[in-house]
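Recall the central idea of this unit: under ordinary conditions, the amino acid sequence of a chain determines the structure it adopts. In this exercise we apply that idea directly, starting from the sequence alone.
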Amino acid sequence: MSYQVLARKYRPRSFDDVVGQEHAVRALVNALDKDRLHHAYLFTGTRGTGKTTIARILANCLNCEQGVSSSPCGECESCSEIIEGRFIDLIEVDAASRTGVDDTRDLLNNVQYLPTRGRFKVYLIDEVHMLSTSSFNALLKTLEEPPPHVKFLLATTNPQKVPLTVLSRCLQFNLKNILPDVITEHLRSVLTHEAVESDDVSLNVIARAADGSLRDALSIADQAVSYCGGSLEGDRVAEMLGTVRADEVTRLLDTLADRDRIALFKCSNELASRSADLADVLDNLQRAFHELAMAYATDTKPEGDLQNYTDRFSAQWIQLAYQTCLMGGRDMQYAPDPKVGFEMTMIRLLDFEPAYEGVDTTPSGSGGNGSVEVTEDSGAQRQPSKKQRKTKVTDTKAMDSAPIASGQAPLKGAPWHERIEDIPATGVTAMILEHSNLVALTEDRIELLLDESHDMLYNDTQQGHLEEIFAERIGKPVEVVVTTGTIVEETPASRKQRLAQERLDVAESALRKDENVRSLMSEFDGRLDAVQPRSD
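Accordingly, the structure predicted from this sequence is:
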C-alpha cells in the first residue's frame, strides 16, 4: 500500500478524535443526542482548524445506519462510504470553483427529492464566502424553507463576506486556532504511534510554525521526518523551516544587554547566512519581551532561559523594545531586503532608550536639530533607582497652583482625558492612566480607579512611576493610590475607542450614500469590505 500522509492518515473519524475544538464538539454532541438538530450549520475559522472534518463527522452522525447519534458505528456501509468520500447523499461542493448562480441553481435543483441511500441529503459547501451575490440569493430561498430531509453544512475562512441574511439562518460555530501546547501533545502522540523519535524542541518549533493549524503541523512533521532522516531534532527542524533557535534568541538578548554591537551584527550575519526567517526572529524577540514584561507586571520571575533577564533590562526598556520589534517586523516589507530591515531594528534597540528622570532629553546645540542626549550606560544600569521611584508627600498645596514649568497646565479643572494628555507617561504607566478614572484629588494624594480587566498592569513599581510623573507634573511630591474595580464611567481608552468607532460609522455611512460608490457596487456586484476614515 502506498504511503499516506499524516494529515490524511490521522484525520479525525469521530468527535472523540477532534483536537482543540471542545466548545463546538460539545454543542454538536448534545444536539445529536437530544434530537435538537438545526437545518443549517456554518463552521468558520482559519485553515486547518477542522471545519470540513467536523462537517463530515456530523454528516456521518446523521446518516449512520444504526441511527442518529453522536457516536456513529463506523462499520456500516453508509459510514464506510462517507469515510471514503463516495456517499451519494453527501454532496460536497468547493464554492471557490463554482461561484456562478447557474452552478448553485443546478446544485439545488435536486433538493426537493428524497435521499437515495441515507436518512438525510447533506450539502457540504466549502469556502462558501466565494459564492457570488446572485448565488447567495439562490441559496437563501432554500435556507429559508428547507425540506425536512436536507441539511446544509457551510464552511468558510472569511465569514465577514457571507451576507447577514445567510448568517442569520445558520447555527454558527467559530473554530479557534489550536494552541501550540495542544498541537505539541498531539504531534507527540502521532509520532509515537508512527515510531518516530522526536524531542521537545522539535515539536515546539513545528507547533509554532503551524500557527494554530493542526493540519499544517502534521504536514510540517511529514516534511521534517524526511528532512531529518527518520527522527526529529530541534536544530535541524529549525534549519529546515528557517526559524530561530532558542539559543539564538538568548544570544541576541545577551548582546543587547551588553550593548555589544560587534557580537550583535555577527549574530545577524549568522542568521542571514543560514537563510533564517528574520521576521520570525523579530517575532521570537517579541515573545521574549512579552514574557519579561509579564514578569514585571506580575512581580514574578519568567521561566526557562529568560529568568535572569529581568535583572538586565528595565521595565521601560522592555516596553520600548517590544514596540520597536513590532514596528520593525511591520516595516520589514518596505526594506531593500530582510537583512537590512532586521539590522536597522537591532540598531534602534541599541540606540533608543526611554527618558528617565535626571536624563537630559532637551534638544542639544543651538541649531534646534531635535537630537536627544541619552546617558550611555550598561543594560543593568537602565533600571531607575528605588529612591527615584518612591517619593512621599510632605507639601501638596501645589495641587491648585499656577503652572510650574513652561507649557504645563494645572492638574485640576479639566476632564480626566485632557489632564493625562500632557503627562509624560509611556508604556505600561500610560496604559494604566488610559484605563483609569480619577476618583479623588485631595491635598495629600491622588486616587485612581483602574478597570479590573487591566489589573495585571499595576504593581509597586508602577505606583512609583506614577508618583514620579505626577510629582514632576505638579512640581511637588504626591502620593498616588490606585485601586481596581468595575468602571461605569468612560475611561480615556474607551473614549478613544468610541470616537474612533463614530468616525468609522460616519465614514462608512458617507460612502454607502455616495452615488458613485453605489453605482460601482451595483455594476460590478461589489461589497464594501473595509473603510478607513481620513486622518483629518
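The chain has 22 helices and eight strands.
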